[in-house]
Write a structure and sequence with these properties.
heterotrimer, A alpha+beta, B mainly alpha, C mainly alpha, B: globular, C: mainly alpha, MetI-like fold, 14 helices
Chain lengths: ~325, ~280, ~290
Amino acid sequence: MGRITLDKVSKSFGDVEVIPPLDLTIEDGEFTVFVGPSGCGKSTLLRLIAGLEDTSCGHIRIDGNDATHVPPAKRGLAMVFQSYALYPHMSVRKNIAFPMKMAGVSEDEQARRIDAAAKALNLTDYLDRRPGQLSGGQRQRVAIGRAIVREPAAFLFDEPLSNLDAALRVGMRLEISELHKRLKTTMIYVTHDQVEAMTMADKIVVLRAGVIEQVGSPLDLYRAPRNTFVAGFIGSPKMNLIGGEEAARHGARTIGIRPEHIDVVEDSGTWQGTVGVAEHLGSDTFFHIHGTGLTETLTVRALGEVTLRHGDTIHLSPRTDQIHRFDAQGLRIE
Amino acid sequence: MARSVTTQRKIINTAVAWTVGLLIFFPILWTILTSFKTEATAIADPPVFLAFDWTLENYATVLERSDYMRFLWNSVIIAGGSTLLGIIIAVPAAWSMAFVPGPRTKDILLWMLSTKMLPAVGVLYPIYLIFIKLGLLDTRTGLVLVLMLMNLPIIVWMLYTYFREIPVEILEAARMDGAGLKEEILYVLTPMAIPGIASTLLLNFILAWNEAFWTLNLTAAKAAPLTAFIASYSSPEGLFYAKLSAASTMAIAPILILGWFSQKQLVSGLTFGAVK
Amino acid sequence: MATQHSRSAARLMMAPAVILLLGWMLVPLIMTLLFSFKKYLPLRGGDLGWVGFENYVRFVTSSAFWPSVLATLAIVGGVLIITVVFGVLLAILLNQPMWGRGIVRILVIAPFFVMPTVSALVWKNMFMDPVNGLFAHLWTAFGAAPVEWLSQASLQSIVMIVSWQWLPFATLILLTAIQSLDSEQLEAAEMDGAPPIKRFAYITLPHLGRAITVVVLIQTIFLLGIFAEIFVTTQGSFGTRTLTYLIYQRVLESQNVGLGSAGGVYAIILANIIAIFLMRMVGKNLDA
């Protein structure tokens, strides 16, 4: 039970409007990711939903009930913070028990839920430790445990993985996805990392300067970005955006082609260029190519180990059905 | 930081620092030593340091002459009461300033501090009249109130600086976990700020213990604390250094002992939370 | 960064402290103002009616007024200079590697725990007494005539007593500040060829700016009102009558509340001038 509706919600700090009025619906059980560059208002939006900030205008509905003026404690949402925000003076057990204590859950029920959460999150051995004695990943799990036991209408995650190192991040990403599959509770997840967005989301909301640029499933966004911003933001390595004459030939102001949609060919391709830096990842190789007649450096992804050397001249041919076209406003041309 | 220092340099540092430290501490040491001398040895020229017949008779005389325990108890009640009351009032105020700062928060804080600059003597007579009217003159309650008001700005300021160290996210987490304001302050903020609160408590206890304007002017026989006890020794009657020293030692000993046992909090408290 | 809800809660929670302090400030202040325009002699007829500015004129034209302002400024200024200068030196000393630093620190901060009445009495009798004081013994031992400290050098003596009480505070704040100085900065300066004196002047001292501000602010607050030290030692004679003490004498010794209250208003004005000056200095530094 956790359908969240934003109706003309906006937020200003003083005279600065950080979020112009926006509408958004998050369906029950959906894993929604807010993604965008830092300062795009994604965290503010999450805090509005949480009730940690007031909306300047508009309404927030949770399961159809107007929650706009309900204090955070009464919204029935749970939040996992970037810094984990564990209570340093309480043991792990007490941390997890805290929301239940606040809700007046009986001691027996508390113990039962703590055990269940600890088992699910591999925390059983650490229940009597203080947060200060745990590693980053364990702290993250405690924060999640604290959120689960409340059995909230929805989980809110505010960049929860950004304090973890790269290896742990991948593991936690999987765990959170797994958790979502199991609990089937609505989750809203804020990140600046488009990989997290792509791998975890049912629905991605791309934000820029407080404005929703596009809403859709990861593959929708990958296949049909609505504008050049989304095109450049989603996908790794970034989509090549080419302007000038080359774009004009396709009847567009800008054309976009993803690195994986350009083939390196022996001779007489569409474009010719010299190889700049090559990044060998083993499974694939990224080439940065200075194309003749193009102002932009092209990124090309080749599968496996390809041996091209700095300064080699090569030919490239984009797959024409994978070329995205954008008009003068940066909007997609179908 | 790991810079090796020659042993020679360290020896010089140690010698200089200990000399300076002992010089600064000397008046206290001398007072304590003198309290165990006879009046004759106390004024001997040249002065005697350790080689004298130690005696406790000065303490006996002082205890006989005045009701030390009553003064002591008054000091404890007045300093403790005013500090506790001040903290109870200051915690919510400091929470507001630290976590919900508004455009005027800093002005309010500075205004509070500026009330401490009002010269007490300027308002002595009005307070005196108010005290007579309310029947507070020469009562511990009256002094608890006055000293609480005296120190409230400092308590608010110290708590404010300590609270600002606590990340807001943790309080927000408590809010998300269903804690109301009362629970947030009681179960999350206060336990996390215990070291800061302890320092504040300790420092203000000492300030109140040593306060010597209101305690001298608003008390007579009943509620007088140790400051008044010792002031009664200001007019000399014959040979009295040893007795004065005994009385002085008895007045400062509780605080010296308290300070010794709570060094860490005290050092942090002595900086008024103003310097990290 | 907060909700309307928490903002109104904040106002509510600030209210007790603000209201109490406002009352504590305003009620006696207004009474003092009223009294200052009256002839008010509690033991000789009580409230004898309005007299306009007579008390103000009398207070300021009395021969004791300007000397008392000067004595106040001399004591506050003298103590501030001594405690800051020696505080910096002591802080640097205590920051050096040595054995038993913890104990030295305790020795140095101990005077702060001594109540002003005790320290004044101990200094007055056991050290500064011209016959039996330790200083007198010391002076005679070197063949010099003992100094009558509290009459011949009264102001200096009081400054010394008060400085002894406040030096620990200054030292501790400055020491904490020095310890927070990034040693890499000093090492960088050393690499740049700056000799120790210059390193101190250009890096350590500016770093201590905020701490010195705090020392000056807090000490001034307390020093403007020093009372016990004078009450116990000289009772205001030999040029040690500060404004505080002068008012105290008018109110309690001559039982002239009207005149004393006018003096109180002057003291409040003086305190405010200093306060505004200090607040400006601190306000800027408070955010850091």
